């Protein structure tokens, strides 16, 4: 396959892809227009930070799979890919430890004002009396918004530091929280109300955009710490800046709204950065995480090549609109499936899903079709009369 790698990927993985017989082009740092041009003949596109827009997908002639070498897919126009029949796959869970470690590091840095202290030392100022006023984290309340794999890992590390952990997540139940030794909160507001430190780990969706707004920030204690290693737009930046000025909120973040997509670029939110502890979206960027992600990318490509379907595709319909199954046991002969589909098409029925399996010996097969309405008795009769059809069964989808 023709594979375009538009962001940094482990050299070991690149070598392995070539050993597998693929043509691999590595072009890092492309502009949006350049990405459109370079994707023209690619069958597989591998990205990390690069944005894959509808325009990129429109221009491609052969693209069938986009792999996000990371957890989220918010940099990819998934709806546009779905409309064009292009698979989108990602590598969830491979950066869990890396992001959790940075989260704890940012939390400690904000509490101990490590960045400010280091800056003063570099400017020749020894200000031990100023920076020796930290409260410390042991015994303090950590509130977590979003208890996926990263949120859970952050909770584990925080508990080892002696922190009390409280959490809210859409799927979290009181019983699950009890088993994790975590305080259960029914709403994000309940978390904010008890938190000395609020850490954000929600996925980027329409529901989570602006989740941390002025109302939520208003529930935090004075001098609380806000840590964000999820996505920049989960926090209302203007509301956050007001809370910094008016309520003494301390902020540590790895993500920004409209942050640069490349590895090296100009950064515009300089004034905000001067007021907070910040890093340039490096949460997943450790050697350990990069190698784990590379291994998953290789697995996805291998299975896609072998089966035509990537594991963990994020844009497949979970439940189609099919209302009926039609199961045809048939002889494994040329044209049998075409004959079945021709008859179904003639009746104006759409096939939502189809699977055909071959039995040992290669003489017989079984085709299962999920249809958007029930086939008529006439259609079933026509199919049953075909010599290669062994039997037919129909049932409603439950």
A few lines on this structure:
This protein has 398 residues and is of the alpha/beta class. Helix content is 36%, strand content 20%.
Task: Name its key features.
398 residues, alpha/beta, Rossmann fold, Alpha-Beta Plaits, 3 domains, 7-stranded parallel β-sheet, 5-stranded parallel β-sheet, 16 strands, 36% helix, elongated
Any overview of this molecule?
The chain is an alpha/beta fold and 398 residues long. It folds into three domains: 113 residues, NAD(P)-binding Rossmann-like Domain (Rossmann fold, 3-Layer(aba) Sandwich); 187 residues, 3-Layer(aba) Sandwich (Rossmann fold); 73 residues, Alpha-Beta Plaits (2-Layer Sandwich), CATH 3.30.70.260. It is 36% helix and 20% strand. It has 16 helices and 16 strands. The strands form three sheets. It has a seven-stranded parallel sheet with strand order 8-7-6-9-10-11-12, sandwiched between helices. Strand 1, helix 1 and strand 2 form a beta-alpha-beta unit. Helix 1 runs parallel beside helix 14 and helix 5 packs across helix 8. The protein is elongated. 34% of the residues are buried.
What's the CATH class label of the largest domain? Alpha Beta
Strand order of the largest sheet: 8-7-6-9-10-11-12
Please tell me the overall pLDDT.
95
CATH architectural category of the largest domain = 3-Layer(aba) Sandwich
Shape: elongated
CA-atom Rg in angstroms: 27 Å
**Strand residues, percent:** 15-25%
CATH superfamily of the largest domain: NAD(P)-binding Rossmann-like Domain
Low-confidence stretches: none
Total number of helical segments?
Answer: 16
Strand-pairing-aware structural class: alpha/beta
Distance between the terminal alpha carbons, to the nearest Å?
Answer: 39 Å
Q: Can you summarize the main beta sheet?
A: 7 strands, parallel
- Record field, number of beta strands: 16
């Amino acid at each position: 396959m023709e594979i375009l790698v538009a962001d940094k990927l482990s050299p070991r993985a690149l070598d392995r892809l070539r050993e597998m017989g693929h043509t691999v082009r590595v072009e890092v740092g492309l502009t949006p227009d350049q990405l459109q041009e370079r994707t023209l003949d690619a069958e597989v596109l591998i990205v990390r930070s690069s944005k894959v827009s509808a325009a990129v997908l429109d221009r491609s002639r052969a693209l069938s799979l986009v792999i996000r070498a990371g957890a989220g897919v918010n940099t990819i126009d998934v709806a546009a890919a779905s409309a064009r029949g292009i698979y989108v796959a990602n590598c969830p869970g491979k950066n869990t430890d890396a992001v959790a470690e940075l989260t704890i590091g940012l939390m400690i840095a904000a509490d101990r004002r490590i960045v400010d202290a280091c800056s003063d030392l570099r400017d020749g100022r020894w200000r031990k009396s100023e920076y020796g006023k930290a409260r410390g984290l042991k015994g303090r309340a950590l509130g977590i918004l979003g208890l996926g794999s990263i949120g859970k890992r952050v909770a584990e590390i925080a508990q080892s530091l002696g922190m009390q952990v409280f959490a809210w997540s859409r799927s979290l139940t009181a019983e699950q929280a009890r088993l994790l030794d975590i305080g259960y909160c029914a709403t994000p507001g309940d978390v904010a109300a008890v938190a000395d430190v609020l850490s954000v780990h929600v996925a980027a969706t329409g529901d989570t955009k602006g989740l941390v707004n002025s109302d939520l920030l208003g529930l935090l204690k004075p001098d609380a710490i806000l840590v964000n290693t999820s996505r920049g737009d989960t926090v209302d930046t203007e509301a956050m800046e007001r809370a910094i000025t008016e309520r003494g909120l301390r902020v540590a973040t790895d993500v920004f709204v409209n942050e640069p997509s490349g590895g090296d670029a100009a950064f515009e939110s300089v004034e905000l950065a001067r007021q907070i502890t910040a890093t340039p979206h490096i949460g997943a960027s450790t050697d350990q995480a990069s190698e784990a992600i590379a291994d998953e990318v290789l697995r996805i490509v291998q299975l896609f090549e072998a089966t035509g379907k990537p594991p963990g595709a994020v844009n497949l319909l979970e439940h189609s609109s099919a209302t009926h199954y039609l199961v045809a046991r048939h002889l494994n002969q040329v044209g049998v499936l075409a004959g079945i589909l021709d008859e179904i098409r003639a009746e104006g029925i759409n096939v939502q899903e189809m699977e055909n399996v071959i039995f040992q010996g290669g003489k017989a097969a079984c085709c299962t079709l999920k249809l958007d309405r029930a086939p008529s008795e006439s259609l079933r009769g026509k199919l049953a009369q075909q010599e290669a059809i062994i039997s037919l069964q129909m049932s409603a989808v439950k």
